Amino acid sequence: MTSRPSIRSRAPKAGSAITHRVMVANYGDNLKPECLLRSALARERFSFRINRRPIPEVRCKADLVFTRARVCVFVDGCFWHGCQRHFSCPRSNSDWWLEKILATRSRDRRQTAQLRSRGWKVLRFWEHEVKNKPAYVVSAIANAVRSKRARSTSSKSEVAHPPLELPNPLHRAVHLEHHVFAEVHR
Ligand SMILES: [Zn+2]
After folding, report:
1. CA of residue 129 to ligand 1 center, whole Å
2. Residue 97 CB: number of other CB atoms within 10 A?
3. 31 alpha carbon to ligand 1 midpoint, in Å?
């Protein structure tokens, strides 16, 4: 992109108590659905690694990695990954937050594509899906692992986010919409 300073270097100062609260609250929430998934899958006698890089060449850690089946699972936090239903932008430093979330989504898509091109099945779920429909998520993962084991060649059944649309708070950021979101949508 441009030669602007990195998003991290432009992060709001810690002096913003609201920003800090948002970050802490959302981080805490992100952890819970993953635990739920792990125990449900362990009960079904699946074995998997937690919070690991599926392959060294792609710099990202998946929440669950089924090495033999080459299936990896990401649980995307509704806040950090900009879920359309639940993302609400903090009022202060909103431009910075929007840019950060859009960059995260762009990175998600890039990493997903990199893993898929190397023969991995990539499942991405929203945090709210894991919370609200855990049985659906568990069975989607179980089916993916079993079918990869059975050497199914179908690649059309991959679970992915629906097409990205502008969440409401993002409508305001017209300049971001053009420069950043266009890239995400590709
Ligand atoms: Zn959500």
Report:
1. 7
2. 24
3. 14
> Quick check: is 3 in a domain?
no
CA distance 142 to 97: 35
Residue tagged 């919070």 (tokens): 51
Q: How far is the CA of 166 from the centre of ligand 1 (A)?
A: 14
Domain count across the chain: 1
CA of 3 to the centre of ligand 1 (A): 32
Predicted TM-score of the model (pTM): 0.70
Between the CA of 152 and the centroid of ligand 1 the distance, in Å, is: 31
Domain CATH number, residue 65: 3.40.960.10
Q: How far, in Å, is the centroid of ligand 1 from the Cα of 165?
A: 13
Residue 145: enclosing H or E segment and its boundaries? Answer: helix 134-149
- Is the separation of the CB atoms in 48 and 40 below 8 Å? no
CA distance 33 to 81: 15
Residue 31 confidence (pLDDT): 55
Could you tell me the distance, in angstroms and rounded to a whole number, from the CA of residue 151 to the centre of ligand 1? 32
21 inside domain: no
178 C-alpha to ligand 1 centroid (Å): 24
What distance in Å separates the CA atoms of residue 19 and residue 149, rounded to the nearest whole number? 44
22-39 residue pLDDT tens = 655 555 544 577 888 899
